[in-house]
Amino acid sequence: MGLYDRDYSRYDQERPFLASVTYPFIVGVTVLCVVFFIISLFQRSITGFVELSWMHLVQDNRFWTLLTHPFFHPTNSPFPIVFNLLVFYFFGKELEDRFGWQGMLAITLCAMVAGALGLLAGSAAGWLSRGDALLGMSGVANAVLVAGVLLDPRRSRLLFFVLPVPGWAIVAFSLLMDLMRVSSGDVGAGQAAADILGMAAGAGSFQVLSRGWYWPRRRVLSRQRAKPRLAVYRGEEDQPMVVPFRPRVVPAETSLPDNLNLELDRILEKISQQGIGKLSDSERQVLLKASESLKKRP
Description:
Helix content: 55-70%
Structural class: mainly alpha
Shape: rod-shaped
Number of helices: 11
Number of domains: 2
CATH class of the largest domain: Mainly Alpha
Number of strands: 4
Distance between the termini: 86 Å
Radius of gyration: 41 Å
CATH superfamily of the largest domain: Rhomboid-like
CATH topology of the largest domain: Rhomboid-like fold
Order of helices and strands: HHHEHHHEHEEHHHH
């Protein structure tokens, strides 16, 4: 087995593609929209089978349009898909950093459901034309816009990617434009109503995710990757530490001999001949006592 044939050196090569992508949900949705847009360019008649409207859903029983309408875009101009995907990326990457792909999926689904229910309810009540249709992910992009701005409402963002303005001002401007479209009663009023409801869904889903009501909030910022936490190992803390008992040995007190001078001469001669390491405990006590008695003399 060579150095580059080991299992740990092949780990990165065996990882799935999306696992190695920085923003897997954003990349996946972007690729899906681009592929469907290219298909629509060659099959323009497919638009009528994927857009959501009251007539298509209720009269023609095209229930799949509840899922397909955000991922297809009008083919008469590239501006809608380009603008929506740019907003989805620049405001969504911070959300995916914080909440993960699960949070982005929740925001997307909430925006899809809110926009679809708003269009169908408005068409059923007569507020909107039953011919109004939803096509494109502008509602999802507005939801991501609002949720991304709520991370830091006062931070400056680039309006139309040119003019720096506070994030809340971008949301207010987008909301005002959609309200004007709804009040005008034009053909795009249904799309504008879905965009407004998408904003509401983005704000609501952000509040839910930021409080961690459904899964723990991710802090990455990174995307915060899973890293082992370092800790000092202190052994089994529950078990008391057993300290062996070692009785202190106190040497017995040695009385000074009567012939102290002779004894000191003998001990000093022994030290000069054999070294201090050869002295016994009693001899050491005699030296200690003798030094103390000499200190006490006036």
